[in-house]
Write a structure and sequence with these properties.
heterodimer, A: mainly alpha, 71% helix, B: mainly alpha, ABC transporter involved in vitamin B12 uptake, BtuC, two-stranded antiparallel sheet, 2 strands, globular
Chain lengths: 306, 351
């Protein structure tokens, strides 16, 4: 895998994660601090299928997709919906996702021990790169992740702009109270956005081990890049998340690679510093993101730059 | 239970209670009173450890003329300083005071700087940015061996080197409880002042505070600086206690999530609640830590008990948010003198 290919693979996966984070932020008004661990959940689903049934991670994508959507809907139905009904503030909802992150981390960590003892091979850290093969001169993961992202984004666009449900979804994102008056059930659109967000994250997670080693706590540091990507895109815009994912993914990989040719490979450890710097600069000069605020948040129309 | 004595358990409860109380009090200023969701609390605690491991160690290296990289030199610093302290306990006292002052100053500075990018934004942006900065700096201090020795860590002198070994734990417990008590009264004093009421006003409605001519951004910067300075003291004390500094000891779960859990468990925005929340949490945590092998054997768990701890505390937090959002002890209105008078007049008129 060349450096540019690697950077693009990483960016593709980051787009999926940022897209999911942004979707749920628009509909529910809470940044999901567990998004990184949602991805690791996907990684472990595909690892389980690989270890126990021998299914290659590329072929298990549909199953990972479904598992992720269950996790997403579950998060909304069991934790967030009851809290929103009790009039919980944004801060309380954020703390709830932080708590969910910890529960998931604990469950995944415990599960990695169990999976390790069932399959007879340690599962507390793993990587899929040996499973990958080059296709027509390009690396398999580059081709797969690009295909996946083209497929997912085009179906999302068709859903949003060519179906009745998509119109309802956009209406409830743009103006939730007006949408409700028009007879749109906000519960459906919220639950749907969480399902989609969970499955996008799980797919990204199932492909991530082709690029980096996964441990149960991987989510804790990936979340920085996801937030950076979403904020660069404005946090409230689906197109922004796509742009932000590529901006952060490419600069994180390519800037650190460029610096490493000057300062030595030690610098490669500090990729997240680049994301953090871009995030900080963005907040200082344009907190509304690269594309500006397009869709208002569902819960309480509050501008980013309050 | 094996070799672990009851006395040892009691001492660890006291030590952890004092350390966590300091951090919870700091978070209560920022989140409980000010409504600032500081998801980067761990950073300030880490900065306190850096004040000891990176700054104080280097100052001693200069004074004693020790050269070499920090990982190796800190070992030298430790043995030389321990020798000096064992001869003259006053050097230990001086070292303690230097560490506390430096940690508080560095903590305040870091706090003020790290909230700057998001100080004027809404609370979700605040939380995201503070968490991101904290995570990245945690990673940098773990990866870079030149700050606090990276994954090797650095050694720290023992301020009680003059005392016999078996006195060390009780002495530390005393010192920590004393420091935590002092900090409790200082924060109580600060929060009972008009500043405390201003913070609560900001938590309830920023617009009102703005309309009264106060600058919300400036209040936030001051508040996070104050909170971080207190949390840094906890980090420094913890390093003095464990006699070494290693970045992995200052992760998000232990020093951001758990403090939030303690504050919310006890009741945010109220000092008694914070004490109650901290003591309940520490009791559960020490019990889990003490009996971890027994738990592992009893349920025949094929994994480390730390994962179980995460699951338990994560679920506890969710249960609190869902079923007891006000915590164990509910917040009471602040009774200032005019408020008391008004309240008495009101009750009289009513009867």
């Amino acid at each position: 895998m060349t450096v540019v290919e690697g950077a693009l693979v990483y960016s593709n996966l980051l787009v999926l994660l940022a897209l999911g984070l942004t979707l749920t932020y628009i509909t529910t008004g809470v940044p999901n601090f567990a998004q990184g661990t949602f991805a690791v959940f996907g990684s472990y689903i595909s690892l389980t299928l690989l270890r126990l049934t021998g299914l290659h991670p590329y072929y298990s994508i549909p199953l990972t997709f479904m598992a992720g959507s269950l996790l997403g809907v579950g998060t909304y139905a069991v934790i967030l919906r009851p809290l929103i009904r009790r009039g919980a503030t944004t801060v309380i909802l954020m703390i709830a996702t932080l708590a969910l992150d910890l529960v998931l981390l604990g469950l995944i960590g415990a599960y990695s021990g169990i999976l390790g003892s069932i399959s007879g091979r340690g599962a507390s850290k793993f990587i899929f790169t040996p499973l990958d093969r080059d296709v027509l001169g390009i690396s398999g993961i580059f081709a797969t992740s690009t295909l996946v992202i083209l497929l997912l984004i085009s179906s999302l666009l068709i859903l949003l702009y060519r179906t009745k449900f998509g119109i309802a979804l956009r209406a409830s994102m743009e103006n939730p109270s007006l949408a409700e008056i028009m007879g749109i059930n906000l519960e459906y659109t919220r639950a749907f956005s969480w399902a989609l967000s969970g499955s996008l994250a799980a797919i990204a997670g199932s492909l991530l081990p082709f690029r980096q080693e996964i441990v149960p706590a991987t989510g804790a540091i990936i979340i920085v890049s996801i937030f950076a990507a979403s904020i660069v895109g404005g946090l409230s815009s689906i197109f922004g998340a796509i742009i932000g994912g590529y901006v952060i993914g490419l600069s994180e990989s390519l800037i650190t690679y460029g610096l490493s040719t000057i300062f030595g490979s030690g610098i490669l450890l500090y990729g997240k510093v680049v994301s953090l710097l871009i995030l900080t600069i963005m907040l200082l000069i344009a907190p509304e993101g690269l594309v500006g605020v397009k869709w208002r948040r569902a819960r309480g129309v509050k501008e980013g730059g309050g | 239970m094996g070799s672990i004595s009851l006395e040892h358990i009691a001492l660890s409860i006291l030590i952890w209670f004092a350390l966590y109380l300091i951090v919870s009090l700091s978070l209560n200023i920022e989140y409980g009173f000010g409504g600032i969701p500081n998801f980067g609390r761990a950073l300030a605690v880490l900065v306190g450890a850096i004040a000891v491991g990176a700054f104080v160690n280097r100052v001693i290296m200069l004074v004693l003329g020790i050269n070499g990289d920090i990982i190796y030199a800190s070992g030298e610093v430790k043995s030389l300083m321990n020798e000096l302290i064992s001869k003259d306990p006053l050097i230990g006292v001086a070292l303690f005071l230097l560490v506390i002052l430096l940690a508080a100053a560095l903590g305040a500075l870091t706090g003020a700087l790290f909230i700057l990018p998001s100080a004027r934004l809404s609370e979700d942006y605040l939380a995201i940015t503070l968490l991101a900065i904290s995570e990245v700096l945690f990673m940098v201090s773990y990866c870079n061996p030149r700050i606090i020795g990276g994954y090797y860590g650095v050694s720290v002198p023992d301020i009680f080197a003059w005392a016999p070994g078996e006195w060390r734990e009780p002495l530390f417990a005393l010192l920590l409880i004393f420091t935590a008590t002092v900090i409790y009264f200082i924060t109580d004093r600060i929060l009972s002042s008009p500043y405390g009421r201003l913070l609560k006003a900001m938590r309830e409605d920023e617009e009102v505070v703005r309309a009264c001519g106060r600058d919300v951004m400036w209040i936030r910067i001051r508040t996070v600086a104050l909170g971080s300075s207190i949390a840094a003291v906890a980090g420094a004390l913890y390093s003095l206690y464990t006699l070494n500094v290693i970045a992995t000891g200052f992760g998000r779960v232990e020093w951001t999530f758990y403090p939030f859990l303690m504050v919310l468990l006890g009741g945010a925005g109220n000092k008694k609640g914070v004490v109650a929340g901290t003591i309940s949490f520490v009791l559960i945590k020490i019990l889990l830590m003490t009996y971890k092998y027994e738990i592992k054997d009893l349920f025949n768990l094929p994994f480390e008990t730390v994962w179980l701890e995460y699951i338990i505390f994560g679920i506890l937090m969710l249960l609190i948010l869902l079923f007891r959002p006000q915590g164990l002890i509910e917040e009471e209105p602040i009774m200032t003198e005019p408020m008391k008078e008004a309240w008495e007049r009101y009750s009289k008129e009513k009867t």
